[in-house]
Amino acid sequence: EGSPAQRPNHAYRPRAGTVLPGCFVLLCQRSRLVDQDDGTQAWLAEGISIVALDRTAGDWAFRLIGDLPRIGGDDDHLGRERIFASSMANYFPDPDGVVDGMLTDAWIPFVDYMLHTPAPATAGQCGLVRARRKPFGTSQWMFDGPTLLHEFESGTKRHTHAAAWTPNGVLLSIGDGVDSEVLLLKHEEGTSWLDSDNWIAWHDMHGAPLADGEGGDVGANQFWSVAPGLEPNTVICGGDNVSGAIMRTIVPDDPQDGIRFERLWGVQPADTGDSGAAQCTCSAICRAQPELGGPLMARFYLESPLTNANEARLLVSEDATHFATVAGLRAAGSKLSPVALFGDSMLTTPMGIISDHGIYQMPLPGIDVRQPLCIGPGSTNEVHVATHEGDLAIEPVGNAEVYEVSRTGSDDLSTLAAMAPGHGPVWRVRRDTAGGLDLASVHLPAPEGGWPSGPLWAQLSFCNLTDGMVRPQVRIDLGAIEPHHRIGVASTHQWVPFDLVTELDTPIDGASPPLVLSLPASGEAPPADFLVTVESVTQSSAPPWSSAEPMGDRPPERVSMAFKPMAPPWIAEFDLHLPAAGFDHGLADRFPFIPLLTLQLEDGSALQLVAEQTYKRVHLYRLWANGTVQTLLTQYHVRMSRLDSMRIKIAAVVGGVGMDVVSGGRRGPIEQIAGTQCTTLPPIVGVTFGDEEGDLMIPMDVLRVSLWPEWGDVDIGIELDVDLSCQADLDGDGIVGGSDILLILISWGDCPPPDGDVTPPCHADLDGNGIVGVPDLLILITSLGPCPTP
């Protein structure tokens, strides 16, 4: 009220924005009060407006920068809700807009993102604003524009996703589906950028347009979020429904050179529970002070009804090239919860239940880029078919062309083939025109008698050769039952890991089904051009996991490490990473229990950390030299997925042990790690990854192993100033005996798991699995007698 923006019957709803130094720039949904046919009035959205909020002479000032006109100049889209957080998320510094470290000139692109409610969107706009100020003092930002660069009204589910400014033009993503495309908007050199008529749209800059009459189109890279890269013409893109969640592209001087996208982080999930429908999406990327090389943060999630908010990931990069998972969203929030960088902190708001409203803060972690030590089971990079090894045969289907590409040739394709993981054959699958869904069929050499019932594992890698996105699908042709998995590959000339796993009880029954490569489509399937290799096809408890890198680039493997003997107190920390071609949470029911590492103790006993993926929890076992297994601790809500960073902390004090495991980043504050009293441990003498024999079930990248001879300020929740008792001494009399057995029997049955730091209500649940039963009784029996003293 009282500002120049106040107009009769108009209202503004901020829904996106960016923060210049000292100034909020907000993208608003502009609505007006409309008379209804029934005589009532309603506020209906008609377009978008931009406002600024900053301080002048100590007071906050609200300024209307300007409006974009209604799409088409009429009310055809009146009432359509618009704007997502990515519609305006970053400013882009002008190459000459930094004076003595002070930003003085920035460009702010934005889009009118129409939501697909109540019907699929069919229109959109892209605009541009320029912000400038004098290079001294606290001078106020002045704005030029906004200018409408592009507008359209056509297509099914066609709306603007996001836009990025570069000196070579504005990059615009339009989606979804068959009408998606990427445009490069350039204004004619020597003309005013403020005049919309001076802007030219270069269409299909990533979408491989075809000649008239050929039909179809390779899908465009419909990225959903953008941020400035390290160089003026470099853009970081958050992919929408693609295997590469975060990509980089360089906008060329000449649009005729085209645009290629490079995958930086991401991979399609191996989620068997939704038949491969899960998609990777990064709909939020933000940079803190890009003019000074500030850090970049992104939010990544899976578009699947089987996932929730705390399975989303927050990523951080200091060089806009290497990314690490550092945090997860709050469980009470949404996978689309807003995220932001503020100083040295990451911020989010849950956007969930009222009791959880608010802004949550976490400090930015430090990032150290290292070459990991790759360890994994059966990492021989050879093609296996059960226990039989033989040549794979492939045949084209329909109008497709298939031929093998040499890994040792000197041409460009052979160079790409040499970079393929594994040692299996590399094929080129190509179709220049639209056609049927199926492209090729891979015939597998079957073991004698054919394949028994599942699960059947197929590990493949794809390399896209087109300038646009391809969405290949692999299925195992079993007639009525066809397990399948699809992947969206937007990056070009890069190998992307891809796998297919049947269900545990898939009835193959002696058949030798082929692997069928296809391009699913509602009508004629589009053209395609890609390389594919089959790394392994196996039927066992686990496949022979292969490395995502070529064999020659991998460091030597080591799965064990000796320590100088160290008695408690000590703390051991492990930084691990789950590789792109490795294990995924979607395969949890194939791996009920996964030994991650085993700490060897001087008396021949051990501590072993085991992940129970089906229920997203980890257990710390005590392995006694006589073969007895005792559960010391259980930690809940640990969900492991490929590309996750993991931090494991195991500690011992006199009479106690503690554990903390984080996968994919911390999801909440922690004041003390989970601890329990136990027999004082013998000195620790080494670590073995996997089980006590060094057998691994899943591949891992080892980044750091640390062992300290003291506990420091970390609290594991064990009171050391009272007499220690042992875990099975339920009545506290210092002896494990008949009365403790009676308490076990009285408490028999379900026992609620612990909630945070709250003590579980039934102490008789000795193994922490939520049930008082036979395992707890066995633990008690192995502890019969007087409790040990420190």
Please tell me about this protein's structure.
This protein is mostly beta strands and 790 residues long. Helix content is 3%, strand content 40%. The chain has three helices and 51 strands. The strands form 13 sheets. A six-stranded antiparallel β-sheet has the order 26-47-38-43-44-45, with no helix packed on it. The chain has a six-stranded antiparallel β-sheet with strand order 37-46-39-40-41-42, with no helix packed on it. A hairpin with an 8-residue loop joins strand 19 and strand 20. The radius of gyration is 29 Å and the shape is globular. About 4% of the residues have low confidence.
SSE order and pairing:
Blueprint: E1 10-20, E2 23-35, E3 41-56, E4 59-67, E5 92-93, E6 98-99, E7 102-103, E8 105-112, E9 123-132, E10 142-153, E11 159-166, E12 169-175, E13 181-187, E14 199-202, E15 225-228, E16 234-238, E17 246-250, E18 261-265, E19 280-287, E20 296-302, E21 313-317, E22 324-327, E23 339-342, E24 345-348, E25 360-363, E26 373-375, E27 393-396, E28 401-405, H1 412-418, E29 426-431, E30 438-443, E31 457-464, E32 473-476, E33 484-486, E34 495-501, E35 515-518, E36 528-538, E37 560-566, E38 570-577, E39 594-601, E40 606-612, E41 617-623, E42 629-636, E43 645-653, E44 656-663, E45 674-677, E46 684-689, E47 700-708, E48 735-736, H2 738-746, E49 749-750, E50 771-772, H3 774-782, E51 785-786
Antiparallel strand pairs: 1-2, 2-3, 3-4, 5-8, 6-7, 8-9, 9-10, 11-12, 12-13, 13-14, 15-16, 16-17, 17-18, 19-20, 20-21, 21-22, 23-24, 24-25, 26-47, 27-30, 28-29, 29-36, 30-35, 31-34, 31-36, 32-33, 32-35, 37-46, 38-43, 38-47, 39-40, 39-46, 40-41, 41-42, 43-44, 44-45, 48-51, 49-50
